[in-house]
Batch of 2 targets.
Target 1
Amino acid sequence: MSSGFRVVAVVVLMGGSTILIQAQTTKPKFEVTSVKPRSLVDGPQTGSRTGRLEMPNDTAWSVIQFAYDLDTDAQVIGPLPDWAYTEAWAISAKSPEPIPNDQLRLMTQSLLEDRFGMVARWEERPLPHLEIVRAREDGRLGPNIQALELREQCTDPEVRARMPPGGAGAQGGCGPVATGLMRMISELTGQIVVDKTGLKVVAYRIFSLPGGLTSMNQRIQPAAKPRADVDAVRQAVNDQLGLKLQASRAPVRVLVVASISRPTPN
């Protein structure tokens, strides 16, 4: 089985012109899948290893987040039913061959379609969101962030030594801006965040963020999830990272979920 898309196209020649009539894509699928209901308890969540997906105690919402690589529920147009946030499932799936992580996400999308009856599509819609940009005209960053070129630099002892020590209430990490810093700000504020800093990889730490960081997989509906004060987050990001959060409204990529249903356990 191929781990990529299969594209089928029908082409008709008319009067010397080539017309594309239809194109279909087939996502890769797991060879074996198991989906069973679980009691709603805290515990281990999404994990993966070569060719396997293990989600022993996850909601449909957290499966969707992993499959589509989402930062926040604000990226989903639905709305999703209540049970998608509050009911847990044990999911185990196996690929017929070793696969990279991006293919694992595609296979998880297929699992959602086959087992949860999920129908979804990507769209660009004009929506309010936050843009993160450099705050200073000279581009200098704040004291609690380092710009890096490669993710592998995150393990460099010198990079770690230059970071301020952590403590109670500190939030931070090291990695690509899109999957680290932006995701943290999205979770804190509940808003879509678009990166316009030009940074690739950063090591960062922010102190005294109000409300703390809520888990992306927290089993409560988005409206009930505690959020930090946006103005306080803006101030901390500006003072400590030398970055600025500014309100914007423009087309952003969102996942439109037309339908989803509880799976039949096996």
Target 2
Amino acid sequence: MDETSVSFSYAKGKGLIISKKSLPPGMKHRRTQVCSGDEKSHISFLAFITHNKDVQPLLPQIFLGSEHIFTLGLLQQLAPHIPGHFKFVRGKSGWNSIAYMRTALCLLAKSLEDYMATHQVILVLDVAKCHYHLSISALATQKGIRLLYVPARCTFLLQPCDTACFSRLKFRLRQRWMSLRAESTTGVCSKVDWLCAIISIVSTLLNDVAWAPAFRAVGLLNEAWLSPRIMGQLGWQAPKHIPSVLPSDEQLKLIFPRRAKFSRGSLFSWSVPKPKAKAKGKAKAKAMGMALVALHAPLLD
């Protein structure tokens, strides 16, 4: 899972710019029909992808927006067009937070509840502060999800969303926004139409593309399949064997930001055996009574 920002306007794009002197006589540049509010409006997209094509359509896709962007009226108009696994979350801010991450973990666990008994769910995250909070680690352990962190400043190399997904997504979004604006008689794309277009683009992209090569290239499926590009960046001649042990404290310091505060115990609480519950009260007395009965029972030949 990774976050990216989605804009409501792509008017200030790169391309061929014609100066006023080059325009035909009597012609002038048309003013871009985009309000300043849309140019500054952004929402956050929490994208979930997996190498398993059968599981991909089940994963939640979450959009976070502030109250002044995701108004109640807008969400009401949009409701009939939102697929079941898409979630539009309205809050004080449109940026990811600890509270939003707890919501995301709960939605992920619920969407994969049929797989939890037979599969180990591993969620790959970067080391943003809201991703490694104590409550996030505890909730993930409770839900049966293990968290795997991409080292700081390495997401461009090792996070599948960054290496294979978001550039394609941004290109398609820009193309669709320009198309919708060109088709509009007023030159304006409404927020409802744009959000519907985002839903369509995200659903098509995430479900139609096979993401297994992206996971394979960054070594998530097997370190022996690490791509030559990554090995070149690391200065390796060949993939190195990675032992199946928990990282040391020194290694954790290299993974997280320099001043990050994290708990090794909370990060790996899933590896600690659960203590056996002690019998209390009536249950303890009943167990002792059954033991005495068994002690005095006659032996059978």
